[in-house]
Write a structure and sequence with these properties.
The chain is of the alpha+beta class. The protein has 3 domains: 187 residues, no CATH class; 61 residues, no CATH class; 60 residues, no CATH class. The chain is built from 9 helices and 10 strands. It has a 4-stranded antiparallel β-sheet, covered by helices on one side. A 4-stranded antiparallel β-sheet has the order 7-8-9-10, covered by helices on one side. Strands 4-5 form a two-stranded antiparallel sheet. The two termini are 38 Å apart.
Length: 331
């Protein structure tokens, strides 16, 4: 998710009562909730699509989720000591207890991969032990409705606190509402993914329910595999598929699905090219739904169906000027 969402999650956890555990608990929660994104620094030394293969990996895995909070807790504890020596420590700050400070930083850090998992981009939860990608397909990466829930909860809680009232309940209600909202969106995605077929062969192709901006109740449904992807449109489509070695059989899809691109090519064998092209290797490592399209000169451009935008070349695509576009087999 975006860093505003991560920050708000840390803040609402603090307002739910966790900030009473130790001095500087709130900074530990908010900074901790953003800390795994230190991997964004890769933009300084990686080019093109290489950052796609690096992000949401090593800093989001189990060792980092233990060590990063330790570093943060140490820095905050040292900051408190420094302020004490200078005589600038706020009088109202609670005593800083390192164990609780580490616990708050750890909780904040732990919330980060959970929320990153919720969208279609993916996250390598087990890095460095496994490089497998995991996908929640539940929320769009920037969800304004989740923002509204979290901002409203923090504001309500802070207002109650300033007035001397019971301030933890609003934040706890906000957390419950946010979790319910996530659960509803998960159900919507699951339902959309399982309703795209009109036959019983839905196990032969991957389905992705991609949330869209603003309209949380809608999904862009993607279905396909092996370089051929279809997306929810307005015309009927028949897709050829194989299962268990059987000959290709037509699979009737929901009538609103059509090929994702009219310029789609056959996905070439890229195993050899990956050895000499780090941009291609990185793209294919990250890509969940790769497919090929024809460039103006007849060569191939690779895209991912989750982030297909032919107007935005570069970030989620890789050009292969030496590979000729081959027509897809007639279906």
């Amino acid at each position: 998710m975006d860093n505003l969402t991560h920050s708000l999650v840390g803040a609402v956890l603090g307002q739910a009562g966790l900030k009473r555990t130790t001095g500087l608990a709130m900074p530990a929660l908010i900074i901790g909730a953003n800390l795994p994104d230190v991997d964004a620094a890769c933009f300084f030394w990686l080019e093109g699509t290489e950052h796609l293969a690096f992000r949401r990996g090593i800093t989001h895995g189990p060792p980092a989720l233990v060590l990063l909070p330790l570093v943060l807790a140490g820095l905050l504890w040292a900051f408190d000591r420094w302020q004490t020596k200078r005589g600038t420590r706020p009088e109202g700050r609670l005593p800083v207890r390192f164990g609780w400070l580490y616990a708050m930083a750890f909780i904040g850090c732990l919330s980060h991969p959970f929320f990153d998992w919720l969208n279609v981009y993916g996250i390598r939860l087990l890095e460095p032990f496994s490089s497998q990608w995991f996908y929640g397909d539940t929320l769009f990466i920037i969800d304004v409705w989740l923002w509204a829930l979290l901002i409203g909860s923090v504001w309500w809680s802070r207002r109650r606190e300033t007035a001397g009232g019971e301030w933890m309940r609003p934040a706890r209600v906000g957390i419950a509402a946010a979790l319910a909202y996530i659960g509803v969106n998960g159900f919507i995605s699951l339902t959309a993914a399982h309703n795209i077929y009109e036959t019983d062969m839905s196990d032969t192709h991957e389905q992705i329910s991609s949330p869209v901006p603003l309209a949380f109740w809608r999904r862009e449904v993607l279905v396909g595999g092996e370089g051929e992807w279809f997306v929810e449109k307005d015309e009927p489509t028949v897709l050829l598929g194989t299962a268990g070695g059987r000959p290709a059989e037509p699979i009737t899809l929901r009538p609103s699905l059509k090929p994702i691109s009219d310029d789609a090519c056959k996905l070439p064998d890229l195993a050899e090219a990956c050895r000499t092209n780090p941009q291609l290797d990185a793209f294919l490592f990250w890509s969940r739904a790769p497919f090929a399209t024809r460039a103006a000169d007849g060569s191939v451009i690779l895209y991912d169906a989750r982030f297909y935008d032919p107007r935005a070349r570069g970030r989620f695509s890789v050009a292969l000027p030496d590979v000729a576009c081959e027509e897809l087999p007639a279906g």
